[in-house]
Amino acid sequence: MSDNRIEQVRGRRVWDSRGRPTVEAEVRLRSGVRGRAIAPAGASTGTGEALDLRDGGTRFAGMDVGRACAAINEEISTALAGWDIADQQALDDRLIALDGTRERSRLGGNAMVATSMALLHARAAAHDRPLWRELAGERKVRMPLPEIQIFGGGAHAARRVDVQDFMIMCPAARSFTQALEWTAEVYLAAGALLKKAGTLQGVADEGGYWPAFSSNEQALDTLMQAILDAGLRPGEEVGISLDIAASEFGRNGRYELALEGRSLDSDGMIEMLGGWLERYPILSIEDPLAEDDPSGFRRFCEAHGARCQVIGDDFLVTNAGRVRAAAEAGSVNAVLVKPNQAGTLSEAHAALVTGKAAGFGTIVSARSGETEDVTIAHLAVGWNAGQLKVGSFSRSERMAKWNEVLRIEESLGSEAGFWGWDALPFRRAR
Ligand SMILES: O=C(O)[C@@H](CO)OP(=O)(O)O
Ligand SMILES: [Mg+2]
To answer: Were 389 and a residue from 144, 147, 226, 401 both cysteine, which residue would form a disulfide, CB within 3.0 to 4.6 Å?
Structure first.
């Protein structure tokens, strides 16, 4: 028997897709087996998220991670040394207790999530199996429905468009492979439309195009045209998915839509989004209202939850307690699961399981600041989440994840199912 006790955990500074430093953790077992993982970072963050430990001063605009790396090298490594790798929950509990703060400000959410993920990698390596299989065991899993950005806006594109993510979903595809193929067709068609119109400005943080639109509706119209140009049927084969990220422009019940020069209250937002739902084949809307507007969420979900997935991201911050409360209140019907919002994999998993128990859609999601780390792809498959959101084609830190799911799908051969329509909570309820 090889010795699966932890020898050491090391932290190192690496760089993310926005040119900012981030934290990599590397776990070494006594057997010599290693596992490593890198923490991602958000730009549009919820106030209830685990906090990254970042160093002040002018170095890298005050974004350095020296203290988070030191926390791994010193406290975390000492606290975990000698522990067996088998029990992720016990190891995560140890990290949580060691930090001792609600918002993870002492060790840093970035140090904790990198360590938590690296522990899982080490365990999978010790068992000589892929990470997703380590999580799923012998349970059957299906490949996730991808949610892929075509246009970026909001905090990821200097707020050129108010809405943060204009994405598509291909629930009628037969497989993950085919869903990715269809999405690529739409992506290329959208790029051609923007070039022709002279509105292409570049690539946004998550790999979607950065367009110069004059209204949010223009983005939706262009997206519809791109779906048609790709030879696909909007609403039947391909649907639209939006992340409004409304906390970025809404506070205290007021929403300032800069692009359109409009200021709306909650009811105005609900009415505007309801109008979009009438006119466009929208299957999913994330954070339609701000995190401080729970009654707005409730009214929105009451009005539209029967025909649209309503996702809480900043609103729920991957917190099982908040997911439970939202299920009781009826304020969303889906939860975005971002491990670094929670701080550890066990807490992220608890949020997902709580969502599933409530009949919610569950979407494992990357952050806008990412790296070559593909852990998230394995979590989506291994936890059988149903949906995955990691950004789009023009950025390889995103494609690394999608391509990893292709590999997993191929490895399963005819065993590999695809979540398709079943991933969407309002479709399952029918
Ligand atoms: O809001 C989101 O869902 C994510 C990913 O799109 O963005 P960020 O990582 O900046 O929070
Ligand atoms: Mg979001």
So the answer is: 147
Q: Model confidence over 115-142: pLDDT tens digits?
A: 999 999 999 999 999 999 999 999 999 9
**Identity at 121, one-letter amino acid code:** H
Whether residue 44 has its Cβ less than 6 Å from ligand 1: yes
Would the CB of 347 count as within 6 Å of ligand 1?
A: no
Instruction: Choose among 426, 407, 383, 429: nearest CA to 140.
Output: 383
Cβ atoms of 287 and 296 within 8 Å: the answer is no
Q: Is 248 in the pocket of ligand 1 (CB under 6 A)?
A: no
Give me 112's structure tokens. Answer: 């904790």
Reported ipTM exceeds the 0.95 cut: yes
User: Which residues are CB-neighbours of 78 under 8 A, at least 6 positions away?
Assistant: none
Q: Is the CB of 370 under 6 A from ligand 1?
A: no
**pTM for the whole structure:** 0.97
Atom of ligand 1 nearest to the CA of 286: 3
Tell me, yes or no, if 206 is annotated catalytic.
yes
Task: Indicate the SS3 state at residue 6.
Answer: strand
> Could you give phi then psi for residue 380, rounded to 5 degrees?
-60, -40
Distance of alpha carbon 356 from alpha carbon 350, whole angstroms:
10
Which residues have CB under 8 Å from 166's CB, separation 6+? 149, 150, 151, 152, 153, 208, 219, 220, 223, 240, 242
Q: Which ligand number lies closest to the CA of residue 313?
A: 2
- The number of the ligand 1 atom at minimal distance from the alpha carbon of 336 is 3
Q: Which of 287, 311, 365 to mutate to test the pocket of ligand 1 (most atoms within 8 A of CB)?
A: 365
